[in-house]
Write a structure and sequence with these properties.
Layout lengths: L3 E4 L2 H12 L4 E3 L6 E5 L3 H11 L8 E3 L10 E2 L3 H10 L4 E7 L5 H4 L4 E5 L4 H10 L3 E3 L13 H8 L5 E4 L10 E4 L6 E4 L5 H8 L3 E2 L23 E5 L4 H13 L4 E5 L4 H4 L4 E3 L4 H18 L2 E5 L7 H12 L1 E2 L3
Parallel strand pairs: 1-9, 2-9, 4-7, 6-10, 11-12, 13-16, 13-17, 14-15, 14-16
Antiparallel strand pairs: 2-3, 3-8, 4-8, 5-6, 6-7, 10-11
Helix pairs in contact: 1-5, 10-11
């Protein structure tokens, strides 16, 4: 299969509509990461997503719709605060989990009674969703467990020959997946941290908590059960307080003939010396925007990525740390 990368325009959107309406897959840009989309009402099309990615069949998908779509066609909106959150943060990097009306294929919901819904703000995503005019279920457009893609080239690197079309909308600005929020109960629960923070949600809904994921829980969100975001190079993670140990780990690896690279916040610039380094950024949003892009860059040039965790906590840092803990094994300082 030939995989085309096309800029988002009338011609590529017409092709995307043809592919989606014909039961095929299209990779689409969003403001968070690139998604691999299929018609969410077509169970056979949805199965192709799992097959192409090598994704576990009990890991549910998010339904994406354009900003003028009536989400009550798909879900029951039972909590008043959900409407307030929709007004405040949608379109944008927020996914809300509701009880499903069963319109979306049970393949996408893994047979569950809930559905995650998102309205991306990316202009290319909006144009695509309006062009196809069906709810599009989509996980990240990469091989399962690999680092999520934030450019069309990243998608091509993973899925060339497996899908017919990648819509190129440039580099994703957000850089990490959407916040996933369970809104089926009186208090909203964050299932996956992202750019819409607990503090932001609480300011609108009155309260917000993090879900305590247990082995016996019914999985309502992607990104909570399996390994994710893992580079193809060995990746070791140290806390900010363990930076001296991280430097020593790097130096020992280099002495042994390996090609290590440090991944850390810009504030450590004066302490790095001559070591090979990729700086994530100066604040949480910059780090989120750069994280997957930098991990993919690092895996291409190095055989060991030594990550030093950012010092910040709360807010968007929670989303950054959520990804780092899944991407890299913890080393003792």
């Amino acid at each position: 299969m030939e995989t085309k990368i096309l800029k988002v325009d009338e011609e590529s959107l017409a092709l995307a509509r043809q592919i989606i309406r014909g039961g095929g897959l299209v990779a689409m840009p969003t403001e968070t990461v690139y998604g691999l989309g299929a018609d969410g009402t077509d169970g056979e099309a949805v199965k192709k997503i799992y097959a192409v990615k090598g994704r576990p069949s009990d890991n549910p998908l998010i339904a994406h719709v354009h900003k003028d779509y009536d989400i009550e066609k798909l879900v029951y909106v039972e909590q008043d605060y959900a409407w307030k959150l929709k007004k405040a943060f949608m379109p944008g990097p927020l996914t809300m989990v509701f009880y499903s009306k069963g319109v979306i294929s049970p393949v996408a919901t893994c047979g569950g009674d809930t559905l995650a819904v998102r309205i991306p703000s990316h202009e290319g995503a909006q144009a695509f969703l309006k062009a196809v005019d069906v709810p599009v279920v989509a996980p990240s457009a990469n091989v399962s467990k690999h680092v999520s893609p934030v450019t069309a080239q990243h998608v091509y690197d993973d899925l060339n020959g497996k899908i017919p079309l990648i819509l190129d909308g440039g580099k994703c600005s957000g850089g990490i997946e959407s916040t996933v929020l369970d809104v089926t109960e009186k208090v909203p629960r964050i299932l996956r941290a992202g750019l819409v923070t607990r503090e932001m949600i609480a300011s609108v809904a009155g309260d917000c908590v993090y879900a305590e994921h247990k082995e016996t829980d019914k999985v309502r969100s992607p990104g909570v059960k399996y390994g994710h975001y893992m580079p193809r190079a060995e990746t070791a993670r140290f806390t900010a307080e363990e930076k001296v140990a991280a430097f020593a780990y790097f130096d020992e690896a280099k002495k042994s003939g390996r090609k290590p690279v440090l991944l850390c916040e810009t504030s450590l610039k004066e302490e790095i010396g001559e070591r090979n380094v990729i700086f994530l950024g100066e604040d949480a949003r910059e780090m989120a925007s750069n994280l997957f892009y930098d991990l993919r860059a690092a895996e291409k040039t190095s055989d060991l990525i030594v990550v030093i965790e950012p010092r910040g906590t709360g807010g968007v840092y929670d989303g950054v740390m959520n990804r780092l803990t899944k991407a890299a094994k913890k080393c003792n300082g």
